[in-house]
Amino acid sequence: MSILIKNGRVITAADNYIADIYIENEKIKLIGTNLTVNADVVIDAENKFVFPGGIDPHVHLDMPFMGTYSSDNYETGTRAALFGGTTTVIDFVIQKQGNSLKAALNEWNGRAEGNAVGDYAFHMSVTDFNEDTKAEIKDMIEEEGITSFKTFMAYKGALMIDDKQMIGLMYEVKKHGGLLTTHATNGDMIDYIVAKHKSEGKLSPLYHYLSQPEITESEATNRFTDMAYQTGVPAYVVHVSSEDALNHIRDASKRNQKVFAETCIQYLVLDASVYDKGFESAKWVMSPPIREKKDQAGLWAGIDQGTVQTVATDHCPFTLEQKKAGEKDFSKIPNGAPGIENRMELLFSEGVRKGKISLNKFVDVNSANAAKIFGMFPQKGTIAVGSDADIVIFDPNEKHTLSAKTHHMNCDYSSYEGLEITGKCKTIILRGKVAVDDNKILVEKGYGKFIKRNKVTAIV
Ligand code: DUC
Ligand code: ZN
Ligand code: ZN
Fold first, then answer.
1. Helices marked H in 312-368 — which ranges?
2. 6 - beta bridge partners?
3. Pick from 238, 242, 223: which is nearest to 182 by CA?
4. Which 8-state DSSP code applies to residue 225?
5. Is the CB of 208 inside a 6 Å radius of any atom of ligand 1?
6. Which residue has a Cα nearest atom 1 of ligand 1?
7. CA 263 to centroid of ligand 1, rounded, Å
8. Per-domain boundaries in the chain
9. Quick check: CB of 183 below 6 Å from ligand 1?
10. Which residue has the higher pLDDT, 315 or 456?
């Protein structure tokens, strides 16, 4: 199988030029002007951008959570991701407290293998750090290709670890060349405020938002970056949603600490007015909650300045029926929302088209930085000879409207219903195969491959 892409404008984190790209089997073989090679498929990309495939470093597919499962599984979730230009996702394996990491990995392999349509990798969430878990860290990094770990500083009783476990895990991950990510919100503070609201009869989704004020995020972020400084572990804060939390990361980086920040597309595009809609606001019940316009502005600035390195989704959809579990009590609404399909186009429309970020910065936060931070570069995240042929041919001028009626995610609502955006993923190539063309999927379930990752080598 060979493909020749003609006359597209190739954009990477560093480049911007018109060229032809020749792909053979799974890899990029040649890049040049007026290439005269024969190919099985020739694609005219004149007046289009040619981007590296998107990488979403934070998704939850088929995730057991709050008494149910996220509604996209590996098949529907990675397929929807492909429609939106995301060719690789990183999901979170989640250890069950009392069980081993390996048992959790087996469980997640069972969900993903043979089902994924697009490529995927795993972070390992450690919810119970003890002598047994400690002994598994090296193996995860060196044998399984899982080089990043995750902790939760909230969700006590199910996912949260305490600071003593956190420090222990940090030393162990550092020792073996891994990276530690965290959900940085203060679980005890949040649990207290939730209980207080409930005791006062304040039970609507608005109180989900009001139970997680900015300070609950900034305090935990500061504590996490301080602990990471003490141990020297490379650190990454997932779904940074607030300006104050980002300021702590900015401060930490001034002492030359390796600390990275991820935000999610919903925190860049939406604001807390989504919580003014009665029970409909359950659609946006996620943690952290959507914040204020000043936080949006701070996060866009953080991207531009390089303090925020990645834009993810925390894709964790639940149907409206699933959300009804919290009709009478906001604390029972499953936390999460759909977005895996919308990330790249929204980032382009809201970021590049509106003049907030450059084309090269777009590629940085859409794919290149995630590939570098998580040990997949230059296999993923760029367009170069020898890289995986993961490519998005993108029309920067096509206007379209986001809607649950047309999206491919297994969720009966869209977080962005009715929003008109400019720029559309037209043809998506995954490891040398045309995966999506003309709004049709052309690869089967099972085509998606697990990507074993390398130790952390690059500093972005
Ligand atoms: N936040 C969510 O909204 N969903 C899944 C887990 C999380 O941290
Ligand atoms: Zn989280
Ligand atoms: Zn998450």
1. 320-323, 343-346, 359-363
2. 44
3. 238
4. H
5. no
6. 287
7. 13
8. 53-373
9. yes
10. 315
Give distance in angstroms: CA of 158 to centre of ligand 2: 13
**Beta carbons within 10 angstroms of residue 145's beta carbon:** 17
Residue count of the chain = 460
Per-chain residues with Cβ under 5 A from ion ligand 2: 183
Ligand 1 pocket residue status of 60, Cβ below 6 Å: yes
Of 372, 351, 375, whose CA–CA distance to 362 is shortest?
Answer: 351
CA-nearest residue, atom 8 of ligand 1: 287
- Residue 92, sorted as left (phi over 0), alpha (psi -120 to 50) or beta, turns out to be beta
Cα(401)–Cα(416) distance, integer angstroms: 9
| CB distance 287 to ligand 1 below 6 Å | yes
Please work out whether the CB of residue 217 comes within 6 Å of at least one atom of ligand 1: no
Please tell me the distance from the alpha carbon of residue 7 to that of residue 32, in angstroms, as a whole number. Answer: 10
Is residue 456's pLDDT more than 80? Answer: no
Mutation pick for ligand 1 pocket among 72, 183, 212, 335 (CB with most ligand atoms within 8 Å): 335
DSSP 316: -
CB-based contacts of 444, cutoff 8 Å, min separation 6: 117
| Residue 134 phi, psi dihedral angles, 5° rounding | -55, -40
Classify strands 179-183 and 148-152 as parallel, antiparallel or unpaired: parallel
User: What distance lies between CA 227 and its chain's CA centroid?
Assistant: 24
The ligand whose atoms approach the alpha carbon of 289 most closely is 1
Interval 77-101: pLDDT, tens = 999 999 999 999 999 999 999 999 9
Q: Which CATH number fits domain 53-373: 3.20.20.140, 3.30.450.20, 2.30.39.10, 3.40.50.880?
A: 3.20.20.140
Please check the confidence at residue 256 and state whether its pLDDT lies above 90: no
Phi/psi-derived region of residue 153, left when phi > 0, alpha when psi is between -120 and 50, beta in every other case: alpha
Contact predicate 374/121, CB 8 Å: yes
**pTM of the entire predicted model:** 0.98
Q: Is the CB of 336 within 6 Å of ligand 1?
A: yes
Q: What is the pLDDT of residue 458?
A: 55
Sequence-separated (6 or more) residues with CB below 8 Å from residue 318: 68, 70, 71, 334, 336, 337, 411
Neighbours of 163 (CB within 10 A): 11
Q: Is the Cβ–Cβ distance between 373 and 309 less than 8 Å?
A: yes
CA Rg value for the chain: 21
59, 212, 238, 287: residue to mutate for ligand 1 pocket, most atoms within 8 A of CB: 287
* SS3 state at 166: helix
Evaluate if residue 339 carries a pLDDT over 70. Answer: yes
